């Protein structure tokens, strides 16, 4: 057994794992980002509301 016969499949498996991780990460991001945006917009609106109420 040459070293290449062991190393090359390992590299291929490693790259496939990385690709799977990347796609899982991207799918998670596409779900998380809208939630974070909604939360930020909501908290911003709440701050404005509190500011308007406290000014009166």
Q: What do these coordinates show?
A:
The longest helix is centred in the middle third of the chain and has 53 residues, at 3-55. The radius of gyration is 24 Å and the shape is rod-shaped. The chain has 56 residues and is mainly alpha-helical. The chain starts with a helix and ends with a helix. It contains 1 helix and no strands.
Give me some keywords for this one.
56 residues, mainly alpha, 95% helix, 0% strand
Largest sheet: none
Estimate the helix proportion, in percent: over 70%
**What is the 3D form?**
rod-shaped
Calculate the terminal CA-CA distance, rounded to whole Å: 82 Å
Summing up helix and strand content along with how strands pair, one would put the structural category as: mainly alpha
Rounded radius of gyration (Å): 24 Å
Number of helices: 1
Uncertain spans, ≥5 residues at pLDDT below 50? none
SSE arrangement, N to C: H
User: Beta-strand percentage?
Assistant: under 5%
What is the overall pLDDT average?
A: 89
Would you report the number of β strands?
Answer: 0
Summary of the model, kept short:
The chain has one helix at residues 3-55. It is mainly alpha-helical and 56 residues long. The termini are far apart.
Could you give the topology of this structure?
Blueprint: H1 3-55
